[in-house]
UniProtKB/TrEMBL annotation:
Domain of life: Eukaryota
Lineage, top ranks: Eukaryota, Metazoa, Ecdysozoa, Arthropoda, Crustacea
Transmembrane segments: 59-82, 88-109, 151-173, 193-214, 329-349, 408-425
Alphabetically ordered keywords of this record: Membrane, Receptor, Transmembrane, Transmembrane helix
Membrane topology: Multi-pass membrane protein
Subcellular location: Membrane
Entry keyword Glycosyltransferase: no
Full protein name: Odorant receptor
Length: 428
């Protein structure tokens, strides 16, 4: 099957399976942010034929969302300072801090997406170009065949968000006089319906949850598709070596010294030299495509890491404080499962890049050892240089250069979370 990159100038023919590009993976998130007026065009540019009325409406929605986030964040921050003056200990203002964190995180993420919009557009434009280059390099390799992992992640994140909003809605109606709610002040509680106050708080939390999901999934799926691109390079390398050094050439080389057939020897040597040239050119192409992937991943580490690290640090801090303030067992377990799923799923999907690069390196080592005698000295040097580059400067997801996203990081996090849970249980 020849994969098809939709909407990228490669026309679709009679195929039963098409390659699922990164654009198609992120399209649901892009449509929600675009048509709901949460963000500007960050993945694909807006059409120039777009009517001015819709542009003005979108800008107005973005301003309103930003104002709502800043307003609620300012209110919660003020409530924290007021509570600190009268609180006997920090534990009494934990819930105020928990309700303040979503507004702060929402403001940070939205600001990053809006301020770096052109950089996002340039990055995804470069990524579409890379996908086309890899497809032309190896037309029979399909990078992403199934939407299952994408649909599962979208469904679970949506389910967690809905469950969280429902539980917080019940909390607002059960405790309308809590210090972290607008209804804490009797004047507001008497003049504004409680349903409207609940809508304001839940709107901010819903917007923050969506922006967090956006930052997690965009980053994770970008690293995931980068790993799939490396897998395509590995398949292409195997195909090239299998085509360039077949079994007949191998048998000829081993028996050349024993047979004195000069005419067949010249033909085979000519064929071997042409195969060697094809392998050499293919290795250079693989190296160039790998460097392109490396360049885009370095951009992603800087571009996505700016808000990914901040959102994870502040939001996981909020989850930890929420666990500390939870008394009932069921909410405690649900919060703990939510924290675990968000982190583990993000790390596992992003670590696909690390696994693919390791597999790619092992495959090249195997091909080098299997075809050592068939390769020319120049080809050996070229492939060994490329392997040295893979070993010394490994391609890995590393937001802001702070930590490498590999499966081993889960062990450290599990140990940290287990210690924290034990301390909480003992303190209760």
């Amino acid at each position: 099957m020849v994969p098809v990159l939709r909407h990228q100038g490669i026309h679709e023919t009679k195929k039963t399976m098409a390659n699922i590009t990164l654009d198609e993976t992120l399209r649901p998130l892009w449509k929600l942010t675009y048509y709901c007026g949460i963000l500007l065009d960050w993945c694909r540019p807006i059409s120039e034929n777009n009517h001015r009325f819709w542009k003005a409406s979108r800008y107005l929605c973005i301003v309103m969302c930003s104002f709502l986030l800043v307003f609620v964040f300012t209110f919660e921050l003020a409530q924290i300072f007021i509570g600190i003056e009268s609180a006997l200990n920090v534990h009494l203002v934990i819930l105020n801090i928990v309700w303040c964190i979503p507004g702060m995180v929402g403001v940070l993420i939205q600001e990053q997406f809006l301020r770096h919009r052109r950089e996002f557009l340039a990055f995804f434009k470069g990524w579409r170009r890379l996908e086309i280059e890899i497809t032309k390099l190896n037309p029979h390799c399909i990078m992403c065949k199934s939407r299952r992992i994408h649909l599962v992640m979208y469904t679970i994140h949506g389910g967690l968000a809905i469950a969280g909003l429902i539980s917080l809605g019940f909390e607002i109606f059960n405790r309308p006089d809590a210090t972290y709610l607008l209804s804490y002040y009797k004047t507001i509680r008497d003049s504004v319906p409680l349903l409207l106050i609940c809508f304001v708080h839940l709107a901010v939390i819903c917007l923050t949850l969506f922006l967090l999901t956006l930052s997690d999934l965009v980053t994770s799926f970008t690293y995931y598709h980068a790993g799939l691109a490396v897998d395509c390079l590995e398949n292409f390398a195997r195909t090239v070596f299998a085509r360039g050094f077949n079994t007949e050439d191998r048998l000829f080389i081993t028996t050349l010294d024993d047979n004195n057939q000069s005419e067949n020897a010249c033909k085979s040597l000519t064929k071997s030299s042409s195969s060697s040239a094809e392998v050499r050119v293919s290795i250079q192409l693989i190296w160039a495509r790998f460097d392109n992937i490396d360049q885009l991943i370095n951009q992603a580490n800087s571009l996505f890491g700016k808000f990914l690290v901040c959102s994870q640090v502040f939001y996981y801090l909020g989850d930890a404080l929420r666990l500390r303030s939870t008394v009932l067992i069921l909410p405690y377990v649900m919060n703990f499962l939510g924290i675990g799923f968000r982190f583990i799923s993000s790390m596992l999907i992003s670590s696909q890049l690390h696994r693919s690069v390791g597999k790619f390196r092992m495959s090249l080592n195997y091909l080098l050892s299997q075809h050592w005698n068939q390769m020319s000295k120049q080809d050996r040097y070229l492939l060994r240089s490329f392997l040295s580059r893979l070993c010394t400067d490994s391609l890995v997801a590393c937001p802001l250069g702070l930590y490498n996203i590999t499966p081993s990081i889960l062990l450290s996090i599990v140990g940290l979370v287990a210690s924290y849970v034990i301390v909480l249980l003992q303190s209760k």
